UniProtKB/TrEMBL annotation:
<dbReference type="Pfam" id="PF24827">
    <property type="entry name" value="AstE_AspA_cat"/>
</dbReference>
<dbReference type="InterPro" id="IPR007036">
    <property type="entry name" value="Aste_AspA_hybrid_dom"/>
</dbReference>
<dbReference type="GO" id="GO:0004046">
    <property type="term" value="F:aminoacylase activity"/>
</dbReference>
<keyword id="KW-0479">Metal-binding</keyword>
<keyword id="KW-0378">Hydrolase</keyword>
<protein>
    <recommendedName>
        <fullName>N-acyl-aromatic-L-amino acid amidohydrolase</fullName>
        <ecNumber>3.5.1.114</ecNumber>
    </recommendedName>
</protein>
<feature type="domain" description="AstE/AspA barrel-sandwich hybrid">
    <location>
        <begin position="217"/>
        <end position="296"/>
    </location>
</feature>
<comment type="similarity">
    <text>Belongs to the AspA/AstE family. Aspartoacylase subfamily.</text>
</comment>
<dbReference type="InterPro" id="IPR055438">
    <property type="entry name" value="AstE_AspA_cat"/>
</dbReference>
<dbReference type="GO" id="GO:0046872">
    <property type="term" value="F:metal ion binding"/>
</dbReference>
<keyword id="KW-0472">Membrane</keyword>
<dbReference type="GO" id="GO:0016324">
    <property type="term" value="C:apical plasma membrane"/>
</dbReference>
<feature type="domain" description="Succinylglutamate desuccinylase/Aspartoacylase catalytic">
    <location>
        <begin position="10"/>
        <end position="196"/>
    </location>
</feature>
<keyword id="KW-1003">Cell membrane</keyword>
<dbReference type="InterPro" id="IPR016708">
    <property type="entry name" value="Aspartoacylase"/>
</dbReference>
<dbReference type="Pfam" id="PF04952">
    <property type="entry name" value="AstE_AspA_hybrid"/>
</dbReference>
<dbReference type="InterPro" id="IPR050178">
    <property type="entry name" value="AspA/AstE_fam"/>
</dbReference>
């Protein structure tokens, strides 16, 4: 494939606290703000604490999940005094780092998240985003302390509901396991290294380095699996099976244990072999999701370089 020339990245936004109880991004953002990290070489850096009221309350959200509020439809919905706080905040953020789909939007957004699942460092993006693919490839080649994997959302930009979709390019870091409301040094170190490497990659890209294309393994979500439930009360009747717990991304074959009922019975996986992710994620109980099943795919992508005729 021919090398693809893309404009330089002059505006980079780092967001944290989109979920107010995911502490790594919050404290990393505060650290960057304290040390006035506002520029690196030719790129200006904006740091945004996304959900201030949820951060103050140490809750995932106040009224509704902020990271589900950034579709074109929701961003065009008129705001009233009765609108959910997070929808109002989404409109404010769209004005700060967007508007989504416009030339005025920042060039790249990185949104910082934690998970209670054993995901290591996970980069979440759409595989049509060449910038995100190359940044993922670069980070994966550098970080060895934890597994580095990619989840491919494959969602059209207009339907993508996450904050990182507001920029021209964007992705999220998901690092875990870490309990909600807790800050672990090892998880903080991994996220800081990933952010530092992202800034390093941007500087190299803007300076004229060509990044070779190739292949990357990604995981594409295909199905959500709910907990077994009592048909009358709707309460869950089983927990994640010990043999599945903490085994995110490992192949799950038909007949493998997935749940253990409170009576001690084993529920086994039915259907084709896939890869479970976000196993027993705390925030997904309310979404009726015990884990997500993903298909492992190989993405082929071209080399990229900066357009020579673009100034930074």
């Amino acid at each position: 494939m021919d090398c693809v020339s893309l404009p330089p990245l002059s505006k980079f936004a780092i967001c944290g606290g989109t979920h107010g109880n995911e502490m790594t991004g919050i404290h990393l953002l505060r650290h960057l703000q304290k040390h006035k990290v506002e520029k690196a070489g030719s790129v200006s850096i904006t740091t945004v604490l996304s959900n201030p009221r949820a951060i103050d309350a140490c809750k995932r959200y106040i009224d509704t999940d902020l990271n589900r509020c950034f579709t074109h439809t929701l961003l065009r919905t008129p705001i009233t005094d009765s609108s959910p706080y997070e929808l109002q905040r989404a409109h404010e953020l769209n004005a700060i780092v967007g508007p989504k789909g416009s030339e005025e939007a920042v060039d790249l957004i990185c949104d910082l998240h934690n998970t209670t699942a054993n995901m290591g460092l996970c980069v979440i993006f759409n595989s049509t985003d060449l910038m995100a693919l190359h940044i993922y490839k670069y980070i994966k080649s550098k970080i060895t302390s934890v597994p580095v994997r990619a989840i491919d959302t494959r969602e059209p930009i207009s339907e993508n509901y996450s904050l990182d979709s507001v920029g021209k390019y964007g992705f999220s870091f998901e690092v875990g396991p870490q309990p909600n409301g807790v800050l672990r040094a090892d998880v903080f170190n991994v996220m800081k290294e990933a952010v530092d490497l992202t800034i390093e990659w941007i500087q190299q890209f803007n300076s004229g380095v060509t990044f070779d294309g190739g292949e990357a393994e990604t995981y594409c979500p295909v199905n959500k699996v709910d907990y077994p439930r009592d048909p009358t009360t709707n309460e869950i009747t089983a927990a994640i099976h010990p043999e599945l717990q903490d085994n995110d991304f490992k192949p799950l074959q038909p007949g493998d244990p997935i749940f253990q009922s409170f009576a001690g019975e084993t529920v086994k996986h039915e259907g084709k072999g896939l890869h479970p992710v976000f196993i027993n994620e705390c925030a997904y109980y309310e979404k009726r999701t015990a884990f997500i099943l993903a298909e492992k795919i190989t993405v082929t992508f071209p080399s990229i370089c900066v357009k020579k005729d673009c100034g930074v």
